[in-house]
């Protein structure tokens, strides 16, 4: 029944369909709590109630979903804590409870779910720290915990999630360094840790081969750009955003063969000039070096970037003519 214009509460009588294996009511205008009668769905493999206006807690009646493989409750107004009984759903491969009003800690029981591949708890009101036992989620390929109220350190145990392709821990209150954090995460492609309180030297960061997108903006990073832009892993980078930090030094010379499409280094303490080798970034679509201490003239080689769609050189010390 997904993607209709169904309104009102979910009727309790739906629970009479006790042999259901798949239930999707997503993309409607349903309101109110999830009815307790859902506990009759003992054979359920997949449930999606996403993109409605549902309220109240995740009901205790869900504990009967022992065969469940996919759970999507995202984009509602569900509140309360994530129930411990979710840790009994050992067949789960997909969990999305993002964009709700869930609170409390991540229950330790959830870390028993060794088959979960995709875990999205972003945009809630979750607190506390990420449990060290998160390394037990051996099958995890995508982890999103952004826009919550997590604090403390990012546990080193995350680096032992060998299948992880995408991690988003942005918009929290994580602190301290992660310089060698991702070295052994050989499947990693996308990293987003922006808008935290991370403190480390960017020149010491070690990224594994294959990382295509790194977003570290709005932290407290120091150091220079040279290593992250000119080492053997840089050939895979398509997106780099380190804006809004305390990075210093100059903009390094750009070698040929880089795949960068978006480069944002705005709002730092970068000095010196824009190198003419910027023209080696032949795939570049967006360049932001604004709000730094860059001097000299605008290099004519910028005109060779045929794919460039966005250019921001504002609030620097550039002189001379517009080429």
From TrEMBL:
<keyword id="KW-0812">Transmembrane</keyword>
<keyword id="KW-0675">Receptor</keyword>
<dbReference type="GO" id="GO:0005886">
    <property type="term" value="C:plasma membrane"/>
</dbReference>
<dbReference type="Pfam" id="PF13855">
    <property type="entry name" value="LRR_8"/>
</dbReference>
<dbReference type="Pfam" id="PF00560">
    <property type="entry name" value="LRR_1"/>
</dbReference>
<dbReference type="InterPro" id="IPR032675">
    <property type="entry name" value="LRR_dom_sf"/>
</dbReference>
<dbReference type="InterPro" id="IPR003591">
    <property type="entry name" value="Leu-rich_rpt_typical-subtyp"/>
</dbReference>
<keyword id="KW-0677">Repeat</keyword>
<keyword id="KW-1003">Cell membrane</keyword>
<keyword id="KW-0325">Glycoprotein</keyword>
<comment type="similarity">
    <text>Belongs to the RLP family.</text>
</comment>
<keyword id="KW-1133">Transmembrane helix</keyword>
<keyword id="KW-0472">Membrane</keyword>
<dbReference type="InterPro" id="IPR001611">
    <property type="entry name" value="Leu-rich_rpt"/>
</dbReference>
<keyword id="KW-0433">Leucine-rich repeat</keyword>
<protein>
    <submittedName>
        <fullName>LRR_1 domain-containing protein/LRR_8 domain-containing protein</fullName>
    </submittedName>
</protein>
<keyword id="KW-0732">Signal</keyword>
